[in-house]
# Entry
Amino acid sequence: MKVRIRIETEFGWGERRSHEIGVIERSSIDASEDSLGISLAEGKSILEEVQRAVLQDHVEDISEVERACPHCQAYLRVHDRRKRRVDTLFGRVTVEAPRIRMCMCGLPGLPEFKVGHSPLTRILRDNAIPELRRLQAELGSRHSFREAAHLLNELTPCASQNHATIRNRLASVAKALEERCDEAPTGTGVQSNPSEVPGFLDSAYVRSRPEYQRRNFEVIVGSIESETAEKRRFGLSQMGADRPTEYLRSNLKAAGWMDSVAVTVFSDGDPALPRLVKNATSADVHHALDWWHISVRIRHVETTFQPLLSQIEPDGAAEIAALVERLRWRIWHGQIDRALDALDDLFRFAMRAREYTYRESNDAALSAASRAMVLRTYLCRNLSAIVNYGDRRQQGKAVSTSRAEGLVNEIANVRLGKKQRMRWSPKGAHHVAIVSAAVLDGRLSSGHLAAA
Ligand SMILES: [Zn+2]
# Structure
């Protein structure tokens, strides 16, 4: 049998035009399962032909609308037709775009300007339509450039892709996002001044390409969550960005931060991160040690003391168990002095237990002692950044960067992580971090990508 695919355009002025898209032939005598339905190759070729027809007809329809002068209703002349290459997800299409003469009705008495303008040029400033650019960038932020090119080539009839086309597109999309990131916040409703803007910051190390004379460099990831705007995620390389502090500042602004508002930076203790925000905002910046990072270390103390206490039965075990039990509550409520005293007691208890225990119990005592010391050191190093988490939670304020922790994975590790074996230039990593964050936020929609 033969299936003939034909589509019909009905133009705005009533004319109809039909296009032969293709013919699908199937033998029914020796049919096989491979011959059932439309194959990927046939699907791609049909899409490409439909795209060609739709695009060409649409350009003609647009041009025809443009030929009516909005002031005097004169029907304007077509100056000439120019071929224009348009890259789409469904193929590279060359369209004939008419250029239309300017109407002289606003300039009476002057001779006619013998030039034309193309409506297509006004609508489409880049050679590629936004959907293709978005997909190239998004796939490039999730997969290796080669893999992203392969996926597009395999599944769509778009013009042949390779690692360089993907890398360059990702870079140009990243630049567009970087330049536009200080747009008004996307939140809705009345913008009241938030009392504080919490920012969750973390960082990861990326393996550097050898020509940069260093083993690795830092990529900073963050998430800003004010009450007045949508959550905003971002990623950047200070080495790779042209103006890292401006970029950070405009991300804060896009997330609803305003000049006079204080920023609370949650981190795992790295003082460089609040300093960076301070430089970017010149606002009051409070540094808070994030609860999630403390909580993980408390959990280690709890899980190492439990088996130790169940294996040995020394005097005072009940008191030690009570100390362990109250540890989390004390730190949560900002009772750091008492928590540090408790950790001292726990450490001494575990070290004493080492002296009279053997084998498993001895190992358990050692790991309990070391976990208590790790938490103690962590708290002491970050004393000024420990807040009353209980109070903050009760006031509905943020306490934890567990989400930022996920961000390191999503923005920095997926493509830039050390497991990827890939080496990066700071600029390349910066671009990937920008696009990955935009993908997570859903900011890579076509609206944001309208030609750079
Ligand atoms: Zn006119």
